[in-house]
Amino acid sequence: MMTYDRRYEGLFGHIDEGINAAIARDNTPLEAYMRGARALALLDLGRTQEAASEAELVVYGPYPRGTSRFNARIALARARIRMGIPEEGVLDEARSLPTSQRDIMRSAPLAVVDAEALWLGLPRPGARERLRVAYEACARAVGQTWNLAATALWLTILGEIDTPPAEIMRRLRLPYQRHIAGAWRDAASAWAELGCPYEQAIALSAGDEAARREALALFDKTGAIHAAARLRREMRASGTRSVPRGPIGKTRANPAGLTSRQAQVFALLLKGLSNPQIARRLSISPKTAEHHVSAIMARMGVTTRAEAAAAARARGLLDTLES
Q: Are residues 102 and 85 in the same domain?
């Protein structure tokens, strides 16, 4: 609930404690769900590659299918959309859950993913209607304020609604209220205070040239390739001169589509290091190293280290991986 409501003070300590307790009790569904929550929080805080890495541990790791992987799949889809990496069916399992059709705890996050993808220019037939249906369900519900806020915000960003009724606005936290009301400067300040640079940049994008340049820097910093490209097009179309060119992100430049951490793990794997040795080299737990290796294998479509090395050579990846 803290994750969904963007209440970050003490959050990661609680999540780490919960994950450790789940591991001690061999409760893999709960561990997966909390890792997914951590991925969502990392994404909100602009730590996009970290969010993708955490989510991939769950999506491609030894965790049971179903709702336990829902958070991770939402986080991974949104991270990949922002980083310009193909989603590769990440949401298929989430969409197929029976509860995804009738439970706003599932339908609303899925609708928000599609809304963001649509805003970034990706094909999402029916996304506006699904978002509106989710918003109306959240408005009728008791609780679920975070889903109400997210759906209302994205309906506003897509230009589907004006300011919602006062009774709805009163249920939302300040950054959402200001953003939905069109007060871009106040909204950007509120998002910055909360620690959410992506939404801060979206708010700044509605401002003057100086604000838009600030937004562009935030998009680039957080690896939001599609959002940065979208804003660059808008700035050029409006006559802005000397629009900064964006950096080529490491993940996008990597032909395998690996995150920065995965590239580090893969490079050590190709050098023949075992999972415990990789863990020691990167100062991570052996289990985390094992999960990274599993995610890499799944992405490469191989089952053994020898096959991974052969695939890396065949695809010309050896020179692109970090050591």
A: no
With a CB cutoff of 8 Å and minimum separation 6, the contacts of 285 are 279
Same domain, 63 and 14: yes
pLDDT digits over 183-214, tens only?
A: 999 999 999 999 999 999 999 999 999 999 99
pTM for this one? Answer: 0.81
The answer to which of 111-120, 204-213, 224-233, 284-293 has the lowest mean pLDDT is: 284-293
Does one domain contain both 88 and 25? yes
Decide: 78 and 280 in contact? Cβ < 8 Å: no
Classify residue 320: in a domain, yes or no: no
Q: Specify the number of domains making up the chain.
A: 4
Render pLDDT for 136-186 as a digit per residue (tens, 0 to 9): 999 999 888 999 999 999 999 999 988 899 999 999 999 999 999 999 999
Cα distance between residue 222 and residue 216, in whole Å: 10
Instruction: For residue 129, give the amino acid letter.
Output: E
H helix runs in the chain, sequence order: 11-24, 28-44, 48-59, 70-83, 92-96, 104-119, 127-140, 145-157, 166-169, 174-180, 184-194, 197-204, 209-221, 225-237, 250-253, 260-270, 275-282, 286-300, 305-314
CA 159-83-291 angle, 5° bins: 130
Residue 278 placed within a domain: yes
Backbone angles phi, psi at 27, to 5 degrees: -95, 80
List the domain range (segments joined by +) for residue 230.
180-246
Rounded to whole angstroms, the Cα distance separating 99 from 314 reads 42
For residues 308 and 297, is the Cβ–Cβ distance under 8 A? yes
Q: Do 274 and 289 have their domain in common?
A: yes
Same domain, 154 and 221: no
| Calpha distance 195→175 (Å, rounded) | 11
Per-residue model confidence (pLDDT) at position 118: 96
Residues 149 and 168 in one domain: yes
Last residue of a domain, one of 96, 120, 141: 96
Give dist(CA 311, CA 72) in Å, integer: 27
